[in-house]
User: Fold these one by one.
Assistant:
Number 1:
Amino acid sequence: MSSDIGPRRGLMLVISSPSGAGKTTLSRMILQRHSDVTLSVSATTRAPRPGEEDGVHYHFVERDDFRSMVNEREFLEWARVFDHFYGTPRAAVQQELENGNDVIFDVDWQGADAIHDQMPNDVVSVFILPPSIEALRKRLEARPGSDPEKVSRRMAGARNEIRHWRRYDYVIINENIDQAYAELENILLSERRKRLRQLRLENLVQELLDED
């Protein structure tokens, strides 16, 4: 599915949720159904895992190179997670936006804040909530390899993430994945039509005003 509104600047669709609430599933659905949406590919200092490809799953970089990128302000946001660093390269995102493509970010609230601070006019942020804490617990328990300790840890993390829901432009309650997707897609299509993202308007309006 593509835009029918003419030339436009892409937007940055920042999606966050507690673990198990559905942001990864919803992101994949958007990517599958919209050819003009891409997924932001992060840079990381960790080694590739089996099956991971450089430039597809992550940009794998050496620690010294990552530090240089930080010093040169080449990241929209970056963070240390345990013993490794992760960051969102700025240049690739800007190029996608200028090409009229939207970019999805699957990040936590801290990453969402950092991205918004860098490019506030381009960001559309969406927070995904579960319908209840019990529903979230059942989803986490149903995950392959889950155990009581993992579920307890993820539930604690989920509550911390949920506390920041007011930071987002939109909130979707994911009780039914198809309905949640419909709401997310409506947000995407509506935001594309914002005045600042429609590139032909300035010239069109000037032509209209210049006519006798």
Number 2:
Amino acid sequence: MAKRPSKKQSGGLTYADAGVDLETYDSFISGLGSMVRRTHGPRVIQNPGGFAGLFRLDYNQRLFQQNYVDPVLVACCDGVGTKLKIATETGDYSTVGVDLVGMSVNDLIVQGAEPLFFLDYIAVPSVIPEMLEQMVRGVASACKDSGCSLIGGETAEMPDVYAEGEFDMAGFAVGVVELKKATDPLRVAPGDVVLGLASDGVHSNGFSLVRKVVSTKKLSYGKIYKDLDADRTLGEVLLTPTRLYAEPIVKLLRAYKVKKVVSGMAHITGGGLAQNLERVMNPGVDAVLDKNSWDVPAVFEFLQSQGKIADDEMARVFNMGVGYVLIVRPTFADAVKRRLEKSGETVYELGEIRKGTGKVKLK
């Protein structure tokens, strides 16, 4: 007869022996409550101890002032990419959470949607509370600034998957749009004006090339390069977070409850201005843009000079100073520009839409 194992094995293996410290993990998670609750509005239903977040969708004029008739949910997810490697090398994790929210929410509003809620996923080899607190604080801050609620997430401790110093992040955003007000490439027409909103730098795309320039030229993230920035180190410049466009765009769209003054929008990420703008156009039009109509931030000139990168490669990889684009009806272009500037955006008139074959032409 086999011997029955005792309920308690002295000297037996524990989760901590496998690299997962549950006490540290639980302590970190329990401390997130107040930070997360600051992003909640009246649509969030509190669910202590729940396994998922609850968000109210029923018709309620006080909560849904848009009074949607035919609401459509809009969802997207994204990450921060290899920019995370620079956060690790500099020890500064305070901005990558903002990047995480920006990459998803900026995509979501392109559809004309209002952000509703956000969830994050962070995978680490081990829980380091100070590091994770910086990340989640950035996520919460960006959610609040974007008008969406952080209603859940996951922190995965996986020592056998991630080496010490490595980690990854993913974000998931959900929004809502009135179906008849959702953007549609077929609405883009000749005569429309193309407006660009300034970026805050590299944002969260192209960092494999950025890091290649840094390593090849033996640059230091901790050094100040005066031809780049007289006051900030290279690391600080590169970790400038993705600009959040949700608040000004949602505010703009709400101002025009009847007229469809915006015929298309694009978030300028990997692929650059041309490729992303072409995604929101139809085959019957071209966007003819003046490449001298916007200011190129110094960080791009610095990277191009250091890496001897060709102009077309720069334009294909980076946003080059334009982080978001709106295509608007010509009679409303000036009014839209003024509204966005009043919201704190730097707005460039990039060009216009003409008859064509669905291409962006830079002149």
Number 3:
Amino acid sequence: MITALKFLHAAAILSSAWLLMHTMSYLIKISPKKPGRLLMFGGCGLLCSMIIFIGDPINILSTTPVFLIVVLLTCEGSFWKRVTIGLMFSSTILSFNALRDNYIHDLLPQTLCQVEHGFTVSCLFSLPFAIILYLCTRKLAPERDYTLSDSMWRLLFLLTITPLGIVLNVVSLFQLSGQKSINIQSHREYAVLLLIALLAFISLLWCVTVLARQQELEQQSLFAEINRKYYEAMEQQHFEIRRLKHDLANHIQVLSSLPEDKQRSYAQELAGNTAFTQSFSYCEDPTVNAVLTVKRSIMERCHICSKIDIEIPAQLPYHKTDLCALYANALDNAIDACMKLEEARREISLKSKAGKGVFCLEISNPAPDAVTTSDKSSGSFLLFPTSKPDKTNHGFGLKSIQEIVKRYHGHMEIKTENQVFDLFLYLPLAE
């Protein structure tokens, strides 16, 4: 009987540790390397199996920092994010362990209430609790690629201190007061306090979700405003080009009325204007035409060879500001990369098509120093930091593109191969 229970105890702890590790992965990215994941699994197993008796603070005071160190070593993210998530799960699991070993344990038959080499039958309850915790987190957690600023994580850290402090005080209370014997049954208020600390996890999880959603909305608003201004500037430049073409007749009249010695300089000035030398009919969509007309003139001034192949209809089911931002930001990044190279190597290739239910855009350019990594499980990318000195007002290009792709439920891939940077994205077309 005892052997079977010990086997069930080991299976419950291992299963609980596995579930706890996957529960944490909804809030923080765990190292994909095998040693890191094994270390994290061991830390979760230690946390789930630790016996917590009220009046004996040794276990809880030793387990909390050990688990926190494991989280710091095996998880990714800012320091405050790792500390907050580590303490959040520590207070939750340890408060349940205290309830399990002091109150649930007393509800079991006396013949099963044995403690031998760290084994207690009450540990079997860790598995159903881990399942409930996993389901609640999966239901309430924010999206996998959510981001919060360090100030928000510091705020959550302060909120996490409260439930952790409750658990530490309840477990250490009798030890600090000098009482030698503890009658748990006469102190039901401690069960209430531990339950409050346990339920605080739901509140903290909800706070993470709300703050992540708020920050996402703020980023979307910022990108939308940047894209709107970008679109307006592009429209204004395109309008100037069309206006200049429309005024060609007036220029001819002026040219005919000028003295002969000034006609040549005036004609040369007009001939150098891109409005007269550049064709801006790349496709049927006027927004894309406006962007490509302006960017093509910039590429010619910078001596960048361009290859453009576009097959898209007159109307795409996307906002004009978003469509403008996709092409303009992608071309801006490619132009910036080419400007770091000698003129002979400056080349940008743009391909874009719409058909069979998807809109595709691919831009490639030489980039010998580019390095990127991708997370195939989440589809998110470690985007390159901007190389411009003003990092506050620059570096939004790829982030803006990624936000638009995500909003339209599309997909984006970034890769470097043979010293060529390639950006590929597709968006679903409405039926």
Number 4:
Amino acid sequence: MYVAVKGGERAIDNAHAWLAEERRGDLNVAELSVAQIREQLSLAVNRVMAEGSLYDPDLAALAIKQARGDMIEAIFLIRAYRTTLPRFGASAPVETADMACDRRISATFKDAPGGQVLGPTFDYTHRLLDFALVAEGEASAVERGEARAEPTPHITEFLNKEGLIQTEVDSEDVPGDLTREPLELPANRPLRLQALTRGDEGFVLSMAYSTQRGYARNHAFVGELRIGKVPVEMEIPELGFAIEVGEIELTECETVNQFQGSKTEPPQFTRGYGLVFGQSERKAISMALVDRALRWEELGEDNLGAPAQDEEFVLYHSDNIQATGFLEHIKLPHYVDFQSELELIRKLRREAMENTMPVQEAAE
């Protein structure tokens, strides 16, 4: 007979203590500080902020430390903390054309108005381990470039002057908020973009890659990829105007996609869009490709049955916190459920044996 394993509160306390010991590691090695994680593991911090839906580098670094580097666990911690915060209001839409760009590139125009800014990136490095990083001591200072301070117009604006790209129409409707309301389908584009920007990077990347391999009609160029800081403004009712409350770092990607036209739209270029907290180029590009694939219906295209065109499949399976919760719950006690299935299997085996015995006897 199967019985429940008994441990209770004492066993759980011991598990917590063991976890803390494992997190600290060898006491002869200096402890990693939150500041070190924030400054030296910034790309990991950016991912936690984006998928946790909370822009706070210090808290994201703390979550990474507490989670022992488990990114999804860190994202879970940030989302849980976010639910405890009061909401004072909503900020105005940020103007990414006013971004102070640390990096700004275009794959469509070599001589892009405003120039190309290569910025900090792995794109031009050799994928070789740098064993100099193992050496202790401070790294030598290197000269870095300056962010482009003046406003940088978007590449797609120049295409739009010739009417070659679909015009995006501003809506007066206030978009829904996935952090406060559950996702409902069909979802409009603002909600889809919210789901993608906080979706699991690996999943969104996989969906984007599938579109490039032919599982959607999605031949894209990176019209522009930009990274930099933008001011955040908030309307203050008592003042009657908006004031700047801070600034955040963003990665924005606009793809330019070929479109041969449909029954409702003329031949033109169309857009995919991605916007993510911090420097998250892979995520922003992936998001833009999937965004474009999901627009098949509004553009009057045929649904090719591609996974990236299936709104329900993409949006419901991109959330790594929901996926983790559902996946990991199966390791929790299911003793009663298993007992019922165990008895069912035993019963079916008895019936099968009883049915085969007369056949064997007759054969003998």
